[in-house]
Amino acid sequence: MATDVQVPALGESITEGTLAQWLKKPGEAVKADEPIASLETDKVSVEVPSPVAGVLTEQLVEEGDNVAVGAVIARIDESATAGATAAAPTPAQSAAATTTNPAGAGETPALRSDEHAPIAEAGEEDHITTLSPAVRRAVLEYHVDPTKIKGTGKDGRLTKDDVIAAAEAQKSGTPAQAGAQAPEAKAPAPESKAPPPGPRSGPHQSSTLMGTLSPGDRREERVKMSRLRQTIAKRLKDAQNTAAMLTTFNDVDMSAVIEARSRYKDLFEKKHGIRLGFMAFFVKARALAAKDVPSVNASLEGDEIVYHDYLDVSIAVSAPKGLVVPVVRNADRMTFAEIEKTIAGYGKKAKEGTLTVEEMQGGTFTISNGGVFGSLLSTPIINPPQSAVLGMHRIEERPVVKDGQIVARPMMYLALSYDHRIIDGREAVTFLVRVKEAIEDPTRLLIDL
């Protein structure tokens, strides 16, 4: 008996998505509720679970196809045995296999060009996963053995960053970072002369990578923008075209916050089970400053300004497929520990690609910390319909004058981009000064000053 697998509801106002990756191949056994495919929507990635236990017999769409909510994308046979009902490869898969390796010679299990090639995790031969097209291209490009790399993606799957980290570790002879294990250096087979790490190649160039390009060759790759990247691009450009955007700057001495973290970090972690970070201080400081300048927590709807008496902070988080902004709701009423735990949970979900649409919706203000990537200064773009975004940057010691003396202090630049249609310059500067005062004297956060 065959059961249809349909595209699940993807969230409010979202009617379709893109099939980003098949997680199961035809002929493979699946458990009930086990993910068989990954969908990419305008906001988040969503996994499609199998409604029943059985064997995947048919894949009705290909990776990269757009699919509507409710559309049938696969079929599961509840009575079949794994391997006995493997469906024939799709035309695209057959063509890819023929083009990449016509004779089938010189192909090692670690460098198979079949985009659904099963790969055993290092030390976990019983755990089989699949390589996505992007990861497969990276494996071919950097000439690493994926069986020697520990994946950091969901359920231990390899990501492109894992492959790059392993390649860098192999090149330098040091252990790989970000969860990847340094693979053993292996000489390529005579039939498989992959070039050293260099510019990326396109998905159609696998056979070229296998032996005809020299290190000096020039290459290009054309990759269609993901649905998420297209949405990000559109929203950011719309924000620039619509809002009267302006940015004001200030700097803040981080000495007091650093001292507080140093003094209480062990006790804080022991009591709450989470590390005390900088973000909680800035969320609290932002909530305090908004009491004096409520317009930074407002939004524009038509010819009306909507003032919110609650603070839902969108925290910009880097994910494998782009920047996402999950929302910390009622942040003004949270404790430091609650804020840190919520942000840490969102960071983990963003890395695994499991953020839900509901966790991304709403938000009355955004905080973006480019400092974690080393940014010294930036002009962040507001996230409509919000009216402002606070940009944090890296902390570095700089000479400043204190009480007539030149001293070194850990300083951070702050940037507030705001919609000048709602917020006046005086209000923007006042808000940023209030944040600066609260960070330089955290006692203000306790006594509401």
Plain-language structure description:
The protein is α+β, with helices and mostly antiparallel strands. It has two domains: 2-209, RNA polymerase II/Efflux pump adaptor protein, barrel-sandwich hybrid domain (OB fold (Dihydrolipoamide Acetyltransferase, E2P), Beta Barrel); 228-447, Chloramphenicol Acetyltransferase. Helix content is 28%, strand content 25%. The chain is built from eleven helices and 21 strands. The strands form six sheets. Strands 11, 14, 17, 18, 19, 20 and 21 form a seven-stranded mixed β-sheet that branches. The chain has a four-stranded antiparallel β-sheet with strand order 1-8-6-3, with no helix packed on it. A hairpin with a 2-residue loop joins strand 9 (118-121) and strand 10. Helix 2 packs parallel to helix 3 (160-172) and helix 7 (279-292) packs across helix 8 (336-352). The termini are far apart. Residues 84-129 and 176-211 have low confidence and may be disordered.
